[in-house]
Design a protein that fits this description.
The protein is built from one helix and 16 strands. It has one helix spanning 67-72, and strands spanning 2-4, 20-25, 30-33, 38-42, 47-51, 59-63, 73-74, 81-82, 87-88, 94-96, 103-115, 122-129, 136-142, 156-158, 163-172, 182-188. The strands form six sheets. Strands 1, 6, 11, 13 and 15 form a five-stranded mixed beta sheet that branches. Strand 7 (73-74) and strand 8 (81-82) form a beta hairpin. InterPro entries: TAT_signal.
């Protein structure tokens, strides 16, 4: 398999664990707080919840300050989307329309995740569901460590204000579309729920 270092991905809808902030919770209410954001709220009177966009959330997501981030990541709205179905030039002319089959494509400097909360030691990892795409391997990795630092296998701990840059590696065996896959970016201070790489597959 040849390795294509053009450095490219697909739409990446994400469900952040830090998407909500508790503004006010009245007496007689209960909040289950596990990670710096709450998991659930039961309110007998009133509750005020602030849901913010990806860039300003406790677990901030934005395009990397790099040509790859500019080309493949759209963070102009409230949520971040990644799309490598095609590339265009400044005149909006299509330059390419997907990944090479029977090749490994590495996309570096794609997405930046930042701990914008108040707690140190937030573990960040991903869960990947490719759906019915059996011939494609999709890896999200820690840019500082390279493609072997699989964020589905092991979490990276971020203190307040620290960031993690993500890249992706895609091994595509045959032509086709990866349009139903989903990547979930998790943030949690509880180390017992972090994935741990024990050296196995």
């Amino acid at each position: 398999m040849r390795r294509d270092r053009r450095t490219e991905d697909n739409r990446m809808p994400n469900r952040r664990k830090f998407i909500t902030g508790l503004g006010a919770l009245a007496a007689g209410s209960a909040a289950a707080v596990g990670t710096g954001a709450f998991t659930s709220v039961e309110a007998t009177r009133s509750v005020e919840v602030n849901v913010t966009g990806d860039a300003d959330a406790y677990l901030g997501l934005k395009a990397a300050d790099h040509p790859n981030g500019d080309a493949y990541v759209d963070d102009s709205g409230d949520t971040v989307a990644i799309d490598i179905t095609e590339t265009t030039n400044d005149d909006n002319e299509t330059l390419g329309s997907g990944l090479n089959p029977n090749a490994t494509t590495v996309i570096e400097n794609l997405l930046v995740v930042t701990n914008q909360g108040t707690q140190d030691g937030v573990g960040v990892w991903v869960d990947i569901d490719l759906g019915d795409i059996g011939s494609t391997d999709f890896t999200v990795y820690d840019q500082s460590q390279g493609p072997d630092a699989d964020l589905e296998q092991e979490a990276v701990s971020l203190d307040t204000g620290n960031s993690l840059t993500m890249g992706v590696e895609i091994e595509a065996a045959s032509p086709g579309e990866l349009e139903d896959g989903e990547v979930t970016i998790n943030g949690d201070t509880r180390e017992n729920v972090w994935p741990q790489n024990t050296g196995g597959e």
